[in-house]
């Protein structure tokens, strides 16, 4: 058999696929990169207590100050809420009794008796009617003098009642206005301490070295806002409530003065 026939009878073998050969190393490399990225991803969560306990002493001092301010503001908020609600209920109840047609003498006896100190609108009524009766029992006093004495007594009592309602509102306003700046001071101190400690280090500095100190510093600002927001909200709410009660007290004093004026004219 000739050499040409042997070549025709031989079975041809297919060449290997170059794309398949090249794709396998690429797939292995991609899987290796994904595994490395997953292993390098941070798995720790934010621990606020650790940030507080590991903070520098200036930041910790400012956080302690903000904590005291927050406790004081919440005490004022709870007490003032109870006080203003009670004052509003008392004003509504006394106005209903006053305008129901009850005699002024009986109302005065009820306000000045029972071994207690009247408050709010009842105290305003008691002061005005007491001074009015004191001058009415004197000889030679005219109706104008009686009315002026009643008005002076009601003005003084109204001022005293409003002062008691506004007590500690100034402290609440100061806490709300200064707490963010106090927290900002803590942030500045925290960043300064972090930067100085990093500059003093001879090792190479990365984001892992900077992040804890910056987080501690920013926590002071967050605490300042946490203290200030409830205080500002409560101050605005309480100030509005006090203004409404003041308008209510003044309106009652004017109406009661008109009643006393008519009574003095009738007796004169």
Structural class: mainly alpha
Strand proportion: under 5%
Number of strands: 0
Distance between the termini: 159 Å
Helix proportion range: over 70%
Principal-axes geometry comes out as rod-shaped
- Any idea how many domains? 1
Order of helices and strands: HHHHHHHHH
Low-confidence stretches: 1-8, 10-16, 18-23, 32-43
Largest sheet, in brief, is:
none
Tell me, rounded to a whole number, the average pLDDT.
78
Helical element count?
9
CA gyration radius, whole angstroms: 40 Å
Transmembrane segments: 55-78, 181-201, 213-235
Domain MotA/TolQ/ExbB proton channel: 121-250
GO cellular component, one term: plasma membrane
Subcellular location: Cell inner membrane; Cell membrane
Task: Report on this structure.
With 268 residues, this protein is mainly α. The protein has one domain. It has nine helices and no strands. Helix 5 packs across helix 6. The termini are far apart. The N terminus is likely disordered. This is Tol-Pal system protein TolQ. One of its GO terms (cellular component) is plasma membrane. Keywords: Cell cycle, Cell division, Cell inner membrane, Cell membrane, Membrane, Transmembrane, Transmembrane helix. It is found in: Cell inner membrane; Cell membrane. The Tol-Pal system is composed of five core proteins: the inner membrane proteins TolA, TolQ and TolR, the periplasmic protein TolB and the outer membrane protein Pal. They form a network linking the inner and outer membranes and the peptidoglycan layer.
